[in-house]
Amino acid sequence: MLLEGIETLLVLAKEGTMSKAGSYLYISQSAVSKRIARLEKKLGKKLIEPSGRRIKLTADAIALIDNIGPSYKEIKGLIFDQQRFQDHTIITLECSETLVAGYLGEMMGNYIKTDPYISIATHHTPVIVEKVQSGEATIGFCAGHLPPQHGLATRHLFDEPFAVISHQSLSQTPQALLVNDFQNPANANQASLLQKVGIVPLMEMDSYTAAAQLALGGVAPALVPASIVKTLKIDPAFCHHFDFLDELTRPVHLCYRQSSYQSARIRTLIETIADVVPTKA
Description:
This protein is an alpha/beta fold. About 45% of the residues lie in helices and about 20% in strands. The longest helix has 23 residues, at about 60-80. The N and C termini lie far apart (about 45 Å).
């Protein structure tokens, strides 16, 4: 119960509201409130205060998170390491949306016929790494740069190139582009490179698919990875290459806890994904 309460506090601190924390944990808002109340009673400390529609952490809560947060993730990971993956144990594969759409559709359709006990979800790379660290996910399939000191085993598959998508012909490097969310740390290198070559981020999308479709609709050129070009079957006539793109790629990795690789089922899935993903797009 104590670990459950700490997990709820950590999620609440991140999400900001009882409702969002409940959605993240797949429990009701009242269940979140009860967990926090039990934790406060156990510790003898007030941990949260109302602040409009959001909650505010007390000084005691902030200190608790600072001291326990990193250890909690490791404890969950160590518990995960003790789990034995039997034939019917669910293997959770957390993926970048663009990668699963671009490279895994047909492969997983065939694979799941032989091992149906697999769950697939999509998240941004920082969240994927956190979930693998804590054991909430078994394998991560990540696009973009991994956070430092993640402590996971990784397999670098390839560096995925980008294209500039535009419905109109482009004779020179565009001055502005539709881009993906630069608040995502995995995309930090894109922001710095565009700044270096003097290209302005016109709009920041949370979806490369949306950026590509807007570009094809004539809104503005968009910076799009090869997996999206493949998924949407974008005509090569609308895919433009410029010199700055030679420096712009995003690394594609598999990540997992080292102990997981000892499981034959997990190892087979890792190797199958590695075999089906191209070494270059």
